[in-house]
Inverse folding.
């Protein structure tokens, strides 16, 4: 009975996060303006699924990973989609403001 109750609670939390798209995350890189990542924009507005990024390209909250622009430009992390094909290209300097200093992610 306890296991069933725990399963239902975890399912409800997971569904509510999926419905809301999770929370916004602010990355503060060295020598650059902050990047605000919007789960709403990526999940709800663009129709991506959580598993499109988690655990392949991004770990869950609180787990460390080393993300930087060199890796992103080479196609890791955000660069998996932001390559000019699926989404705007991180290699285009005109796109910098779309992430850095943009409060909508």
């Amino acid at each position: 009975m306890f296991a069933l109750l725990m399963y239902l609670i975890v399912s409800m939390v997971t569904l509510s996060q999926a419905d809301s798209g999770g929370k916004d995350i602010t990355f503060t890189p060295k020598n650059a303006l902050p990047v605000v990542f919007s789960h709403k924009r990526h999940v709800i507005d663009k129709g991506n699924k959580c598993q499109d990024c988690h655990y392949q390209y991004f770990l869950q909250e609180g787990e460390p990973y080393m993300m930087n622009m060199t890796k992103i430009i080479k196609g890791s992390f955000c660069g998996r989609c932001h390559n000019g094909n699926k989404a705007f290209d991180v290699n285009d300097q005109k796109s910098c403001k779309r992430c850095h200093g943009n409060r909508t992610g």
